[in-house]
Structures are given as structure tokens and as C-alpha cells.
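Sample 3 of the quickstart, ligand iron/sulfur cluster:
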Amino acid sequence: MEFSKILNKSEFLKANLVQLLAAEGEELDLLYEKATEVKLANIGNKVYYRGLIEYSNICAKNCFYCGLRCGNTTISRYTLKDEEVVEAAGIAFEKNFGSLVIQSGERSDRKFIQKIADLLKQIRDLSEGKLRVTLSMGEQTEETYQLWRESGAQRYLLRIETSNPELYHKIHPNDELHSYENRLLSLELLRKTGYQVGTGVMIGLPFQTLEDLATDLLFIKNHDIDMVGMGPYVENENTPLYEFRHLLLPKEKRLELSIKMVAILRLLMPKINMAATTAMQTLHPKGREMALKVGANVIMPNLTPLKYRDGYLLYDNKPNIHEETESSLQRLKKSIEDAGCELALGDWGDSQHFSERVSKDF
Ligand code: SAH
Ligand code: SF4
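Result:
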């Protein structure tokens, strides 16, 4: 089908999405123009901050792509002290970010679950309930999701990583702890327990095809997801997937594919929240700005205390691990403005998609 006709469709078939993902040259410019237009018409040019706290790099899982995997013995493990979490949350509150994201390696022992609930309550108290909190702590039981929801978390980010079950199994150990089916079930539980639900995928994984990515986009749409964080796969030398690095697209192309995914998803889901992710910045210093221009509207400045940052290395060459919060915030604000966007402080920046979904349900 003619490229410009596809861009103006309201429903997209998988074949259409593959064609959009393969766009080059003038067609790619058209895709970006259209995505920018759809973004501005639906959610405007505001960008929301989510202060990121990387709570702990202790993880019970062993995902083949991730530096935090329990089998990686080359890193030393940390967990933030309570007062460090509270201090970082205080920074987000004082600086009027509106929201926090607390991310961690996955643990499901009683002590961890209770600790997170306690921290959530402390954050609610210190901010008088004025900070929105997103958790990203992997697969948990319905009771745990419920407990954390009641303790003060409103949003949860759980990437499906890839919606192709075969590829999922190639990049994870083949055991019960790493089951595609349970990942899916967890997304359903999050929805059921009342969260704003976020998911996402890694882009440019070894063995991944454009058809897989088109299916990922349809997966996100069909699951009526409220917020998305997706970004390029970045190799980590201390992981098993590193062996397949010869199969990867060059970094520029992997970033380009990620930006295309953001642009196309904006066409499919005009009102969701979408993050310009750190992995994009890892592949190119301007990676996040590119994403903001064509569809993203969320950025996650890192508030993890500096001394822990080199412990949270999901992948190689992660940026900002030595930078002071203040100077990186200055640069970030400028990048947002360079991308033609406006930083929105003092605003929760809830997903409009979520607000409309919830008002439909009642
Ligand atoms: N343990 C939680 C949250 C922390 S990991 C979880 O797994 O859900 C957060 C995200 O980092 C993962 O969802 C994955 O998409 C991303 N990630 C891990 N290793 C990566 C890599 N090598 N390249 C790009 N993203 C990676
Ligand atoms: Fe652990 Fe998440 Fe990394 Fe998997 S992706 S090893 S669950 S931190």
C-alpha cells in the first residue's frame, strides 16, 4: 500500500506496521512529521518528569540480557537505606517533579515486600500524597500488587520485553521463574488491582524481526496499555546474550528503529504516556530528544545516590553514572526545550489514556 495512505489510516494491520518500520529517507521523514502532528494534537508538547530511584540491584532472576541477573558475579550488590530513599523522594517533591519511579531487581520474599510497603507509606507522608509513585519491581502476586497499591503506588511498569513467546524463551532461562505466561498474567493482575499499567519491549534484540516488533506494537494496543517505556537493547558483556552481538544492528540503526517504534506507537495510541528512555541516550547523546520530538512525553531523571549508580548497570556504557543531579537536570531541561517541548513541573502527568479508560469503566 502507498506509504502516505498507511499513515492516515485509523486501524493498522501487521503488514502496514512492518512497512512503517522499514521506512527510510523521505518516507521516514513523513512518518516522523505525522507522529509529531498526532502527538501535538492529542497531548500537546508537555514533558513530565519521573524521578528515578534505582532501589536495589539484588535480583532473584537470571534474564540473559541484563547485568543485574543473579548469575553475574562481577558486580557488588546494594540496597538503598530507608533514609536514602526518603531523601531522593524529597528531592523529587521539592523540585516539583510530580512523580517518582522506584525500580529494582526482582525479589518476592516477605521482608522485601513489607519494606517496599513501608517506604511507600513514608513517601506518601512526606509528600502529603502529592507525589505519584510508579513501581517497577517485576512479577509479584496479586496480594503484593494490592498491598503496594494500598500503600501508595498508583502506577506499575512491567515490560513484556517481547510479545513473541518463542523469542521470550530464547532470552530467558527455561524455568518457571521466567515464564512468558506469568509475565502476561502479571500484567492482567496489575490492571485488575487498579494501577495505571505500563509495559514495553526491547528493540533490536538478537533474533528479533520487524514482524516481531509490529506484533509488539499490536500487543501494546490490544492490551489497552496506559504508559510505555521501550528502548533499544544494549549489550552487556557480563551476560549470556553478549555471545550473539554479531547479530545486532549497528547502534545508529538500533536507535533509529527505537525512534520509529515510538513514532508508530504514537499513531496507534495518541493519548498514552511514553518515555524517552535512558537506553536511547546510551546509543546516542541526543537519543532522548529524538524520541521526544516524534512522540515521547516522559523523562526519568536519575535520583539514585551517586555512590550506587555504577551498581545498577543493566547494560554497558550507561550514561550519567558520575553526574551530579543538579547539572544533569540543567542539561535535561535544555534538551527538552531543544526538542521543541516544554517541561511541566508540579503536575502528575497522568496518562490521558488511563483517565479516559477509567471514566469509561464507571
Ligand atoms: N526487575 C524489573 C525491573 C528492573 S529491569 C523487571 O525486570 O521488570 C528494567 C528493564 O531494564 C527491563 O524490563 C528491561 O527491559 C531493561 N533492560 C535490562 N537489560 C537490558 C539491556 N541489556 N538492554 C536494554 N534494556 C535492558
Ligand atoms: Fe532482574 Fe529485571 Fe534484570 Fe531480569 S531484567 S535480571 S528481573 S533486574
